[in-house]
Design a protein that fits this description.
alpha/beta, 9 strands, two-stranded antiparallel ribbon
Amino acid sequence: MPILAAMAISPRKIFLFLVFAGAIGLLLAFHKPSRKKLMQAPKLVFDSRNAGELKPPEGFDPTADTIPVVISTDEGRLMGAIAAINSIATNSKSPVKFYLITDKDTKDHLQQWILKTRLHSINHEIIVFNEEWVKGKINVRGGRQELASPLNYARFYLPKLLPPDFNGKVLYLDDDVIVQGDITQLYNTKIDETLVMALSEDCNTVSNRFGLFMNTYANYINFGNENVKKLGMKPGTCSFNTGVFVANMTEWKNQKITTKLEFWTALNTEENVYGAQQGGGGSQPPMMIVFYGQYSKIDPMWHIRHLGWTAGTRYSRQFIMEAKLLHWNGRFKPWGRTSQHMDAWERYYIPDPTGKSQLTRKFRMF
C-alpha cells in the first residue's frame, strides 16, 4: 500500500486495468494474425475481364466513326496510362484510335505492355515526343516539380503529333483517368463555332459541392505581371482543368494555338507570369490564358476530378459509380501507396507482363 499511495494509484484503478488487460488477452487469443498476414497489402480488385481477350461492350457499333484519343505518359506513369486505355477500350461503343505520346526511353516498354496483354488488339500508334520543342521554355515554380516533365506539355503540340492531314475533333486525356462511360458521349460534346475546345469548369455544382478552393484564375496566374494586366482578365474568373478536353484541330491550326501557348511558357521563364500561386504551374496556366472565356463546356459528370488532392475520400461510393470519367489529378495517384477510391481504378489495371512496373500499396495490419 505505501507504494500504491506513492504512485497515487487506487486499488479500483488497478482492478479496472487488470480487467482491460484480460479482455485484450482474450481478443488476441481468438485472433492471432500470422506475420505473413501482418505484412499483407490490401487485396486488389481485379476485373476478371482483364485476364481474357478484350471484348467490345453490348451495343458496340463497328461501323461508327473512329474516335481519336490522345494520351501522353512516361515510364513512371505507365500503369496509369494502361488502366486508362483499358477502361476506354472496355466501355466504348465506337471504334477508338489511340495516339500514345511518350519518350524514347518508354516507347518499347509501352509497346510490350500492350502487345503482351489483352490490349494487343487495340488500334494504336505510339509517338515519341520531341523534347526539343520545349527546351528552355519550362519554369515550374513551387513544390510540384513533376509538372516540369516535357510530356506534360505534349498537349500543346497536337498538330505536330497527329497526322499532318488530321482535322476535326480529338479527345485529349491525362494518363491518371478512368473512363467508366461510353466515350462516344464525350466525343460528341458540341464545340461552339469558332471555338477550339470544350472542357469542364472548376466552379460547376459538382466541383463546388466539396468546397475545393483552387477554382479561380487568381489561384494560378500572377495578376501583378504587366503582360497579364494588359489582357484584361478578371482574377475571380472560374478556372478549368486541362486534363480532359475535346479539341477542334481545324480551329486549333487556324488560330495558331500552339504558337500562343509557346509564347506564354517562354515568357514565364523570363518573368513571373504563373506558377507561384496556390494552384501551381505546369501546362495548365498557359492554356487558361490562351483560352480565357473562349471554350465550350462538357458535362461535369464527364470530368470528376480532384481524386488525387487528398488520400481521404471526398466523394461517396454511389457518386463515384455514377461518374462517367474519374481523374486523380494531384499528388495521390491510384497506382501509389494510398489514394481515394483506388478500387475504381484497380478494376482496369493490367499487371505489367515484363515485371518492370509494380503497384505500391500501403500495408495494413489485418
